[in-house]
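Duplicate of #3305? Posting structure anyway:
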C-alpha cells in the first residue's frame, strides 16, 4: 500500500478519535473550567492531524509558506491550551504547595510556546526543511534548528516542572487521574510533532489511548460524585464542586452563615410501638423531604442524626440572604413534616431552631474519612433552640432576626430571654409564627 495512504488513514482515524474525546469533555462536562481548555487541546490536536491529509495526498504544495506557518500556529495553540488546562487543574487544590510557583512556570511555558509560533511564522522555510525533518546530527548542526527547538524544549520543560508541582498538591481527585494520564501520554504527543510523518499517527495513537484510560476513569468518578452530591447538596453547590473541585470547595474557612436544626417530637415513643420497617420507611421519607426542601432553597445538609437534621445556609455556596432563606426552610420543613406525620398517623411533631453567626466550615476528619462540617457556637445555638422548641415551634436567634429586617417583623412573636445549656449568657429569641 502507498505509504501516503497509510499516513492518511492513520491521521483521519486518530483525528476523529481526538475530536470525539474533545466533544465528550465539552458537552458531557460543560460547566467545568478545566474541561474547556482540555477539550480545546484535543480538538486542535485532531484538527492538526486532519490538516496533514491534503499534504500526504499531494493535493497541496507543502513547500509553500502557508503550511509551515499554519502548523506552527496550530502546534503553539495546542501547547498553550494544554498548559492552561494544567493551570486550571492547579486551581482546584486546597491551597497546598505553592500556587504562585506553578502559575509562573506554566505562564512562562505558554510564553515559550508563543515564541515557537513566531519562529514558525517568521521562518516557514526553515521550519519545513530543518525542524520538521527527522531530527539528526545534521539537523542539530543547522543554526536554524534552534529558533524552533529552544522555545519548544523550554515550553515542555517549564510545563513539565509546573505540572509536577500541581500533581503534588491536594488537587481534585478526578482531575489528578486525568492529569496523570496526560503526563504519561505527553511524550508520545510531543514525539509525534517532531518525528517523521510515518511515525506520527502511531505515536499519537498510543498517547491518545493512554489518555483515554484516564479520561474514562475521570468520567466514572464524576458520575459517582454527581450521584452523591445530588442527594445531599443543592444543584448549585454540586455544580460548584464540579467546577472548582472538591478540595477547593471544602477548604476550611470562617464565615457568617445561618444554621437550621430540625428534630422530631415524640420519635422515641413512636419507635417503641412501630416495627423497624415502619421506622425506616418514615425516616427515609422524612430525610428525602428535608433534603428536597433544603437544597431547593440553596442550603446544604450538614448531617442526619437519628430524627434530627442539621442544615447550613451560606456555605459552601455563599448566600447573601442566608438568614431569609433559612427561615423559609424552617417554615416549609414545619409544614411538610407536620403533613408527613399526619399522613402516617404517627402523632409526631417537629421543633426547629435557627441561628446565625460566625462558623468554621470545611472538610474535617482523619485521613481515612472526610466530612463537610461546621463548627462553632452558632451550630450549638441552633441545636439548643431546636431542643427547646415545642411541637410546631420555630425559635429564631437574635442575629438572624437582625439580618431579616422589617420584612419579617409581622411573622415574629415577642422577644424572650432564655437560658440554654452550654451558654454562659441567656439568649434573646423570638418565635416564627405561622
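Output from current build:
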Amino acid at each position: 500500500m502507498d505509504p501516503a495512504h497509510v499516513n492518511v488513514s492513520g491521521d483521519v482515524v486518530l483525528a476523529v478519535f481526538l475530536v470525539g474525546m474533545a466533544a465528550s469533555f465539552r458537552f458531557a462536562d460543560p460547566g467545568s473550567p478545566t474541561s474547556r481548555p482540555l477539550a480545546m487541546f484535543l480538538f486542535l490536536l485532531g484538527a492538526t492531524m486532519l490538516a496533514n491529509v491534503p499534504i500526504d495526498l499531494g493535493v497541496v504544495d507543502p513547500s509553500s509558506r502557508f503550511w509551515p506557518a499554519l502548523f506552527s500556529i496550530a502546534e503553539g495553540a495546542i501547547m498553550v491550551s494544554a498548559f492552561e488546562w494544567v493551570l486550571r487543574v492547579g486551581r482546584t487544590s486546597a491551597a497546598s504547595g505553592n500556587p504562585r510557583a506553578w502559575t509562573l512556570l506554566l505562564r512562562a511555558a505558554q510564553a515559550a510556546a508563543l515564541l515557537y509560533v513566531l519562529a514558525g511564522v517568521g521562518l516557514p522555510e526553515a521550519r519545513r526543511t530543518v525542524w520538521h525533518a527527522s531530527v539528526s546530527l545534521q539537523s542539530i548542526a543547522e543554526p536554524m534548528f534552534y529558533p524552533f527547538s529552544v522555545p519548544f524544549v523550554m515550553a515542555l520543560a517549564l510545563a513539565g516542572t509546573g505540572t509536577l508541582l500541581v500533581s503534588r498538591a491536594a488537587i481534585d481527585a478526578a482531575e489528578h487521574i486525568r492529569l496523570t494520564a496526560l503526563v504519561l501520554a505527553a511524550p508520545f504527543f510531543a514525539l509525534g510533532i517532531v518525528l517523521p510523518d510515518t511515525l506520527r499517527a502511531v505515536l499519537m495513537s498510543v498517547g491518545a489511548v493512554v489518555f483515554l484510560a484516564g479520561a474514562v476513569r475521570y468520567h466514572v468518578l464524576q458520575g459517582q460524585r454527581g450521584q452523591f452530591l445530588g442527594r445531599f447538596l443543592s444543584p448549585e453547590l454540586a455544580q460548584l464542586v464540579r467546577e472548582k473541585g472538591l478540595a477547593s470547595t471544602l477548604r476550611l474557612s470562617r464565615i457568617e452563615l445561618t444554621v437550621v436544626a430540625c428534630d422530631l417530637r415524640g420519635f422515641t415513643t413512636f419507635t417503641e410501638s412501630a416495627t423497624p420497617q415502619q421506622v425506616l420507611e418514615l425516616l427515609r421519607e422524612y430525610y428525602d423531604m428535608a433534603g428536597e426542601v433544603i437544597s431547593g432553597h440553596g442550603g446544604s445538609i450538614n448531617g442526619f442524626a437519628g430524627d434530627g437534621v442539621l442544615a447550613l445556609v451560606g456555605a459552601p455556596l455563599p448566600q447573601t440572604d442566608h438568614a431569609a432563606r433559612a427561615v423559609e426552610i424552617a417554615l416549609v420543613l414545619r409544614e411538610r413534616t407536620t403533613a408527613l406525620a399526619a399522613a402516617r398517623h404517627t402523632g409526631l411533631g417537629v421543633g426547629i431552631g435557627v441561628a446565625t453567626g460566625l462558623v468554621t466550615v470545611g472538610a474535617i476528619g482523619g485521613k481515612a474519612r472526610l466530612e463537610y462540617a461546621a463548627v462553632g457556637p452558632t451550630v450549638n445555638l441552633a441545636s439548643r433552640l431546636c431542643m427547646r422548641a415545642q411541637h410546631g415551634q420555630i425559635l429564631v436567634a437574635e442575629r438572624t432576626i437582625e439580618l431579616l429586617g422589617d420584612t419579617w417583623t409581622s411573622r415574629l412573636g415577642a422577644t424572650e430571654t432564655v437560658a440554654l445549656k452550654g451558654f454562659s449568657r441567656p439568649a434573646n429569641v423570638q418565635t416564627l409564627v405561622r
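Confirmed duplicate; merging threads. The CA atoms of residues 94 and 206 lie 33 Å apart. The beta strands are 253-265, 300-305, 308-313, 349-365, 370-375, 393-397, 416-418, 427-431.
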